[in-house]
Amino acid sequence: EMVRVIADHAASAIANAQMYERMQRMATTDGLTGLNNHRYFQGIFDAALGRAERFGRKVSLILTDIDHFKTINDTYGHPVGDRVLKRVSAILQENARKTDVVARYGGEEFAVLMEETDTKGAYHIAERIREAIEKEPFHCENGLFNCTVSIGVATYPHDAATKAKIIDAADQALYKAKFQGRNQTVLYGKMKEQQKSSS
User: Fold this and answer.
1) Nearest one of 150, 148, 93, 151 to 122, comparing CA atoms
2) What order of strands is seen across the sheet that includes strand 59-66?
3) Contact 102, 96 (CB under 8 A)
4) Would you please indicate which residues are annotated as catalytic (active-site) residues?
5) What is the pTM of this model?
6) pLDDT higher than threshold 80 for residue 173
7) Are 167 and 137 in contact (CB under 8 A)?
8) Per DSSP, what are the bridge partners of residue 84?
């Protein structure tokens, strides 16, 4: 009887632990892509900036957006659009470093947070991601098609000193990449230098 009770308690404890793990995963990851979700990413970003400020380190942020994603959905259908999101997510994970944090930022937008990484290092990773996605063949009923991404990069503390301003800087650079023709990486710092020299 005692053995049965202990076994029941052990089984119950294992089931509870598995359920807790599932709940944790659901709270921190995006259901479609399996990447970190937006909310969880924000917490990681806060912690990374705290460390960077304390130890005088750099932190870079990549914001990337799938080009013409609405057209992909409208042309090939939402199931194909979902497959594109999943594959782009996988490519981001494959080409980011193990220490980088990759997240689905919202819709067809993704973020990569890179601790102890300057603008040059972030640009190298951003271009690696962009080129890998550009080369990837995507499948639909009518055959193969390609898709591209636009990328904006900002670095703490060089480009901005707060989380909100770093996100805004990366977002401005991303917008510039789209405005200039898409499928490219724009560095916020370089963008500001060009604006100064042209004014």
Assistant:
1) 151
2) 101-106, 109-115, 59-66, 149-156, 185-187
3) yes
4) 108
5) 0.86
6) yes
7) no
8) none
